[in-house]
Amino acid sequence: MTSAVISETSFLPSENIDPKELADEILRVLKYRGGKDATVATPHDWLTASIKVVRDRIIDRWVSSTKEAYDQSAKRVYYLSLEFLIGRLMRDAFSNLGMMDAMREALSSLGVDFDVIAALEPDAALGNGGLGRLAACFMESMATVDVPVHGYGIRYVNGMFRQEIRDGWQVELPENWLDHGNPWEFERRERAFEVGFGGSVESVTDAQGRLERHIWKPTERVLAVAYDTPVVGWRGKRVNTLRLWAGMSLDPILLAAFNAGDHIGALRESNKADALSRVLYPADATPAGQELRLRQEYFFSTASLQDILQRHLSQYGDLHSLPDKAAIHLNDTHPSVAVAELMRLLLDVHGLDFDDAWDITKRTFAYTNHTLLPEALESWPVPLFERLLPRHMQIVYAINAQILIEARAKGDFSGEQISSISLINEGGERRVRMGNLAFAGSHSINGVSALHTELMKETVFADLHKLYPTRINNKTNGITPRRWLIQCNPGLTALAREAIGDRFLDDIDAISDLDALASDAAFREKFAAVKRANKQRLASLVSERLGIRVDPSAMFDIQIKRIHEYKRQLLNIIEAVALYDQIRSHPERDWMPRVKFFGGKAAPSYHNAKLIIKLANDVARVVNSDPSVRGLLKVVFVPNYNVSLAEIMMPAADLSEQISTAGMEASGTGNMKFALNGALTIGTLDGANVEMKEHVGDDNIFIFGLTTEEVAQRRANGYNPRDVIAGSPELSQALSAISSGVFSPDDPDRYRELTDGLYQHDWFMVAADFDSYADTQRKIDEVWRDSPLWYAKAIHNVARMSWFSSDRTIRQYAEEIWNVPV
To answer: Which residues neighbour 761 within 8 Å (Cβ) at sequence distance 6 or greater?
Structure first.
């Protein structure tokens, strides 16, 4: 390995920063703000001091960015998201400010290893997967392309759980990321807002008995307190704000109850407030879990809106100008209660009439839909919604009446279509449809890939699209190249700089200059050396954490994402079992060595997803210990998948698994990250895979399986998976091995239910796509055998991925949805 492959350097000029002066500054911060002398400082002390030194430099830019937007009366974007999977911020900020080299040298002069302390920074546990990581990429891109924005979310104390694997099973533990504090954030006690739940609604009439307004009198009140984190863009041009809300009780302790001996009851109110910002996505299989989830969504939505309106009124004095000065964006369905809450604030607090309030609301909100799965388009039982938010229930009914009257007036909507449009699902248990509320209350509804957007029009929002045909538009997702190339793959970045210069650092479109080098043998060898170094880094991590030795010369075949049946980790595992059988049955064949990596978390209450994790680990245990395989196949499940782990695994991947059932993945962003780092993709024509195929070329991606239309036809025509399985010897044998207990001798029936589901209904088309998937994998083996061909294709992928930058996506949002100049 050459130093160019493994070193990490700044890609910006270091602003003439003297490392000696920087070291002195670190010592001052360590002493006067940390209370520590260098001789007794711990690694965490050095980490905190280093962050605060750089944070101080960010603050000047942060203040000037905020003041500039205020002075120029610029339109601001307010991005509401229940998740922000920001990961570690230290390298992000140091790199974007061009301080990496100087900080390394300064710390080294103090006897401190930069990489050691950087590894101590925890991943902020503020997200679950792609939705939260997209929000984080968007925040960085908005700062980079100079869009003034406040991101709003919840400051989860534990957030998404920490995953451990015990005897192959997922175990959920608290992710205590705030144990050592968070040196990036600032508590804003002056930005605290009351949040109410429950109670009753009273009507106020004038002397003539005419209704003047409504007054909601909640029986429960908590406080939302703001914590701000600066988000710095590339070259530090703009610094935006991520504002996260923490729950706090107005009465932390009921002293009378405590003194009376009721020590638990005395803290009940404090505990209820604390629960609002304790854990991301509480299990909602129980009524209590559903209630907490709805409380969380309302909690952060109302705090954010109160903050936005207060800021707007202080500057402009009139809420009629809100749509011209504020664009409020709902990132998925979770914050859609904000539509009803903004109406409540406009009607009941600020005295607007219904028509004005509804017009302002629709022109202010925009909504991104991220899924076609019915369970992810949240809905709440009417009794729960009405008990927690009685005034909002009234407003939802009022909005609904207006929409349904509008639809009936058009004269071409059937009764079934009217029911589909309604904000209230009347079938069975009456529920409030939050996706419909977000759609009705927004002027723009966007999908996140071209395919997803068209499916929105045809499926979940078909009738609302008919009623409002101009609202749905597409904004294909993107990723920030700073995090997902420059920072996580310094070897490839250095190689690209050497080959094509530095222009791509500021304009990622310039990465296309690498395309011509795919036919250059010398460049391919350097590219392969970078990949090899990245694979060695992952191999070392796996050896250290799991005690599993993997060969970096083998193909690294990686599927890392949330564990869900539609993402079809099960298809990948079954193919691994079939390959295992083939290697043992045909040792004479020239098999290509392969390591199948898995990583991802299953929702705590998602039984089948947790069973899939156990199956992956059971298969790994058997395959990895079988000498007859001769090391040609290994299976590895890497626990606790998060952003930092992704930053190691994605640059190391040779093959990226994007194998969801066609028509079910809205976009995906992992597919983009893998390809930008030089992995080839095996995938279905689903989500953004469709557009990736168009950009990288048919010859540089491996597509298999049913299309969206074919999936729909199979389901409509009485698909019989049993016949399909019977006609596929490899699939049948693999399922027989799994279901009979070959991989679970301690519990032979462990996977019977999982495999029976494939025989009986196979909703996710695992059996239907298996032969095509397995055949494509063997074609991939043949390409892998031809190393120059493989790396040429990999280079084409890197060179042709610039369109999938989140900078491009944000510019489209700004110009076409938010009406903000960029």
So the answer is: 721
Q: Which residue would you say has higher pLDDT here, 255 or 381?
A: 381
Residues 6+ apart with CB under 8 A from 610: 169, 170, 563, 602
562 shares a domain with 472:
no
CA 682 to chain centre: 21
Out of 423, 449, 477, a domain closes at 477
Q: Catalytic: 610? A: no
CATH number of domain containing 708: 3.40.50.2000
Which amino acid does the sequence have at 718? G
- Whether the pTM exceeds 0.85: the reply is yes
| Contact by Cβ (8 Å): 48, 34 | yes
Same domain, 703 and 610: yes
Catalytic residue among 144, 480, 669, 755: 669
Q: Which amino acid is at 488?
A: C
Reported confidence tier of residue 264, pLDDT bands at 50, 70, 90? low
Place 129 in a pLDDT band, splitting at 50, 70 and 90.
confident
pLDDT at 96 over 70: yes
The answer to whether residue 673 is catalytic is yes
Instruction: Give the rounded distance of the alpha carbon of 204 from its chain centre.
Output: 44
Are 145 and 236 in the same domain? yes
88, 295, 329, 673: the catalytic one is 673
**CA angle, corner 503, sides to 806 and 811, nearest 5?**
25
> How far is 468 from 473, CA to CA, in rounded Å?
12
Rounded CA separation 622/743 (Å) = 7
Of 274, 175, 279, 282, the residue nearest 224 (C-alpha): 274
Cα–Cα dist 66/416, whole Å: 49
Is 344 designated active site? no
> Are both 472 and 609 inside the same structural domain?
no
Do the beta carbons of residue 131 and residue 561 sit within 8 Å? no
pLDDT tens-digit readout, 735-779: 999 999 999 999 999 999 999 999 999 999 999 999 999 999 999
| 794 domain residue, yes or no | no
Residues 656 and 559: their CA atoms lie apart, in Å, by 6
- Phi, psi (degrees; rounded to nearest 5) at 59: -60, -40
Per-residue pLDDT band at 262 (split at 50, 70, 90): low
Q: Which entry of 150, 471, 567, 568 is annotated as an active-site residue?
A: 567
Strand partners, 636: 597
Does residue 511 sit within a domain? no
How many CB atoms are closer than 10 A to CB 292?
21
Q: Give me the catalytic one of 243, 561, 601, 610.
A: 561
Distance between CA atoms of residues 94 and 111, nearest Å: 19
Q: Look up 67 and say whether it is catalytic.
A: no
Phi and psi dihedrals of 81, rounded to 5? -145, 135
User: Do 635 and 657 form a contact (C-beta atoms < 8 A)?
Assistant: no
| Pair 207, 317 in one domain | yes
DSSP state, residue 129: S
Residue 270 pLDDT greater than 80, yes or no: no
**CA-based torsion, 107, 109, 110, 115: positive or negative:** positive
Domain that holds residue 153: 73-88+123-398+434-477
Instruction: Report the domain count for the chain.
Output: 2
Q: How confident is the model at residue 14 (pLDDT cuts 50, 70, 90)?
A: very low
Closest CA to 94 of 61, 122, 67, 57: 57
98 SS3 class:
coil
* pLDDT score recorded for residue 259: 66
Q: Tell me if 347 sits within 8 A of 357, measured CB to CB.
A: yes
Residue 654 lies in a domain: yes
669 is catalytic: yes
pLDDT higher than threshold 80 for residue 237: yes
Q: Which of 370, 526, 537, 793 is catalytic?
A: 370
CA nearest neighbour of 702 among 649, 661, 672, 658: 658
Given the residues 562, 793, 796, 811, the one annotated as active site: 562
